[in-house]
């Protein structure tokens, strides 16, 4: 193959100048002609209709997504050095932007100029996912580059995704190199997680919500007053210094510490000292919890009680282990249930929480599924906001690319109309810094994450 002339691919005159605008894909319908006889996945040169060089990319004529650009430099060879350089750059980017590089996404496909590859780092184990025929052919070079640049203990493959069929590839998973234990412990936002490399969803853990998980911190405390608990000075007998009418109890002096400061403790409506150190914490409901990641962040930041729900028993078992490992077990209830049913039942039962968190899987996997997905999102968000105490918060996300940001906001507004709520947007974001986006590559912009304060109209 090396001795052959490179295959030349010419694009049609009438096409969007997407490639020139930085988008790394060319569709089959945009190709005018191919000179040569390429193997599926071979690196080819791409020219415009007038013969101007545009890029080099993987060509797979069996896929609608026919070309994926690998370089804009005509002199760059797609050899070992190329892979080492690209992986090195991706790693340097993570080291610059992430406080903790123990666990993160190292390569995010097109956005790291390595189309069709995902690499996640779980402490000293790497998990790779190969999604294109072109990268499949270069697998050995990729693996070598990962070894050279990142010096992992082991590399595991999780290419067990149906989307590979579009490239004519079978699913594959298993150890690739070095030692690959089934489970790895990682640290994210200062919290410990066990990641199941073999059975965990996708590559085992979702890094895209890292910063969003941390963003719930300010919601987790400041709730004591709403249940009538407030800090009050104690008397020398250890009981509140003042009685319920606010008068100092006769003959009782304030309790002071060694520095001579008056000691204060939380006291409830009945005048009883509250022992629970999380008295000021939020009551939280997390649905679609998977590894329990939002639950863990909630506990870390002082939540009083968290209900952690997922439909999958395996997910809840994993969440329970993670919660236990971090010392939060006494603050968390686990529920295995369908969130749609659970939310509806809790509304009927009149339950309320300070914070409700919804991080569902992608309901719309295709454009045509958007309508059904909209109803699904609206259903859970409608019931979710009904379950929030007045002045509490709804934390809500969608990872469906087809559910565009404006549509997502529209859906929340529709739900708020039905629930008679006023929603105040506190925080709006997408995926974290290890999921960079190339401007103009809409497909990379899939995650919507929002925090809303929920108010009833009568407030
Ligand atoms: N919040 C998680 C990611 C959630 S992924 C994190 O940060 O890692 C979506 C999760 O929703 C999966 O664990 C899946 O088992 C669960 N799920 C899917 N359908 C569900 C349903 N109808 N009810 C409850 N959980 C569901």
What are the segments in which pLDDT stays under 50 over at least 5 consecutive residues? none
**CATH topology name of the largest domain:** Rossmann fold
Number of strands: 22
Report the CATH C-level class of the largest domain: Alpha Beta
Strand content: 25-35%
Mean pLDDT: 94
In one word, what is the shape? elongated
**Helix residue percentage:** 10-25%
Instruction: State the fourth-level CATH superfamily of the largest domain.
Output: Vaccinia Virus protein VP39
Bound molecules: S-adenosyl-L-homocysteine
Structural class: alpha/beta
Strand order of the largest sheet: 18-17-16-19-20-22-21
Biggest sheet character: 7 strands, mixed
Please give the oligomerization state of what you see: single chain
Radius of gyration: 27 Å
First-to-last CA distance: 72 Å
- The second-level CATH architecture of the largest domain is 3-Layer(aba) Sandwich
Number of domains in the coordinates?
4
């Amino acid at each position: 193959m090396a001795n052959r002339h490179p295959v030349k691919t010419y694009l049609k005159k009438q096409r969007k100048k997407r490639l020139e605008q930085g988008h790394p894909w060319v569709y089959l319908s945009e190709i005018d002609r191919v000179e040569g006889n390429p193997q599926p996945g071979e690196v080819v040169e791409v020219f415009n209709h007038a013969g101007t060089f545009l890029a080099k990319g993987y060509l797979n004529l069996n896929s609608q997504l026919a070309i994926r650009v690998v370089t804009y430099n005509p002199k760059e060879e797609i050899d070992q050095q190329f892979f080492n350089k690209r992986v090195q750059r991706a790693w340097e980017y993570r080291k610059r932007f992430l406080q903790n590089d123990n666990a993160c996404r190292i390569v995010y496909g097109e956005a790291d100029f390595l189309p069709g590859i995902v690499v996640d780092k779980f402490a000293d184990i790497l998990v790779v996912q190969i999604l294109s025929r072109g990268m499949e052919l270069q697998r050995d070079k990729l693996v070598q580059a990962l070894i050279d640049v990142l010096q992992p203990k082991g590399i595991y493959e999780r290419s067990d995704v149906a989307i590979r069929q579009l490239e004519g590839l079978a699913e594959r998973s298993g150890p690739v190199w070095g030692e690959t234990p089934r489970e790895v412990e990682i640290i994210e936002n200062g919290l410990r997680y066990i990641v199941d490399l073999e059975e965990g969803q996708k590559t085992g853990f979702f890094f895209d919500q890292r910063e969003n998980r941390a963003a719930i911190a300010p919601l987790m405390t400041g709730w004591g007053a709403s249940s009538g608990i407030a800090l009050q000075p104690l008397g020398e007998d250890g009981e509140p210094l003042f009685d319920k009418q606010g008068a100092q109890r006769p003959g009782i002096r304030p309790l002071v510490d060694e520095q001579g400061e008056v000691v204060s403790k939380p006291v409830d409506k009945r005048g009883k000292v509250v022992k629970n150190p999380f008295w000021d914490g939020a009551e939280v409901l997390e649905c679609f919890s998977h590894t329990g990641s939002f639950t863990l962040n909630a506990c870390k930041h002082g939540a009083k009680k968290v209900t952690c729900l997922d439909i999958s028993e395996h997910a809840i078992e994993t969440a329970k282990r993670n919660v236990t490992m971090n010392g939060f077990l006494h603050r968390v209830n686990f529920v295995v249930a369908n969130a749609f049913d659970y939310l509806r039942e809790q509304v009927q039962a009149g339950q309320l929480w300070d914070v409700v968190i919804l991080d569902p899987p992608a309901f719309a996997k295709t454009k045509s599924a958007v309508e059904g997905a909209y109803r699904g999102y609206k259903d859970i968000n409608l019931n979710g906001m009904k379950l929030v105490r007045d002045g509490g918060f709804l934390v809500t996300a969608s990872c469906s690319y087809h559910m565009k940001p404006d549509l997502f906001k529209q859906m929340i507004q529709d739900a708020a109309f039905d629930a008679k709520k006023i929603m105040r947007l506190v925080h709006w974001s997408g995926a974290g810094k290890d999921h960079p986006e190339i401007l103009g590559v809409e497909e990379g912009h899939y995650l919507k994450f929002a925090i809303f304060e929920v108010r009833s109209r009568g407030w």
